[in-house]
Design goal:
It is a single chain. This protein is an alpha/beta fold. The protein has a single domain, classed as Rossmann fold, CATH 3.40.50.150. A seven-stranded mixed sheet has the order 3-2-1-4-5-7-6, sandwiched between helices. Helix 6 links the parallel strand 1 and strand 2. Helix 5 packs parallel to helix 6. The mean pLDDT is 92. The structure holds S-adenosylmethionine. The site of S-adenosylmethionine has 24 residues, from helix 6 and helix 9.
């Protein structure tokens, strides 16, 4: 897959585009947090890099995704790509935090009249656990473990009018929950769990379930543990598809 923007045509329907654009602005809380920064360059994570005392935002105004516009675009374009090519399978995000990406995935089903696919939302709902296999992963020193409860996430999705049984929650630690997917087919998987162990577990249990022609996206390409987990998995399992990086997210299409 080339640059997602250059190869995938956006839907021509202006109302659909406007809804998805507004949704991206809402889940990032850009209208409240954006200030003078254009949406294309807005990074809500900047607020968290400041010491808490310097936060210019009320904690209640935390966005419901940490993704940038470009990263949300990658999710949208990947869905359009697999849909246009008729590749079978469901969508999954492993590491959902407050659920913003799940909201976008579920909205895309409505906007494009996709009736055959479902959205899986896998998370501990207790934050990122410490590594037990990988030592020296800087993620273990983070104070914020990015925890959001299942109730909080359901509330967020409900407020967008998108909570229904086409979203399946997979609560628990990946090592316990993801092995159950022995027959499931996924067409888009987004791994966003930050640590070496968590990313490795997601790959081990989920990648074999990705359809040929399906797309895998890995957040946090700048995190050494995450990157090492992906590179080790690719080397061990002979995954040679070209890996591309778009706005800090790695992705490739399974061939
Ligand atoms: C940075 S947050 C995800 C951000 C989110 N995708 C967004 O849209 O902003 C990382 C998430 O991964 C989850 N997580 C990390 N390791 C996990 C594991 N081993 N099992 C289950 N959940 C895990 C955490 O609970 C947290 O919600």
């Amino acid at each position: 897959m080339g640059s997602p923007k250059s190869q995938i045509e956006l839907p021509s329907d202006a109302a659909q585009n406007a809804y998805i654009d507004l949704l991206k602005r809402s889940v990032t809380n850009y209208p409240y947090l954006g200030g003078d920064t254009p949406f294309e360059r807005f990074r809500c994570i900047v607020h968290y890099d400041l010491p808490r005392a310097q936060w210019t935002i009320d904690p209640l105004a935390r966005p419901i995704t940490l993704l940038t516009k470009g990263q949300l675009d990658l999710v949208e374009h990947s869905i359009l790509s697999v849909e246009q090519r008729g590749v079978p399978g469901d969508f999954i995000e492993a590491g959902i935090w407050r659920g913003g990406v799940i909201i976008l995935m579920r909205a895309m089903l409505n906007v494009h009249g996709i009736t055959t696919r479902r959205v899986f939302a896998a998370d501990s709902f207790e934050g990122i656990p410490k590594n037990t296999r990988a030592l020296n992963d800087p993620v273990d020193a983070w104070r914020d473990r990015w925890s959001a409860s299942l109730e909080e996430v359901k509330g967020n999705i409900e407020r967008f009018g998108l909570l229904d049984d086409r979203i399946e929650f997979v609560p628990g630690y990946f090592a316990d929950t993801l092995p159950k997917f022995t027959d499931q087919k996924f067409v888009l998987m987004r791994l966003d769990s930050d640590s070496y162990d968590s990313v490795e577990e997601s790959l081990v249990y989920l990648y074999p379930r990705l359809s040929r022609g399906g797309i895998i996206i890995i957040d946090d390409w700048h995190l050494v543990g995450c990157k090492a987990a992906v590179e080790n998995y690719r080397a061990r399992h002979g995954v040679h598809e070209e890996l591309k990086v778009h706005d800090g997210n790695a992705y490739w299409m399974k061939s």
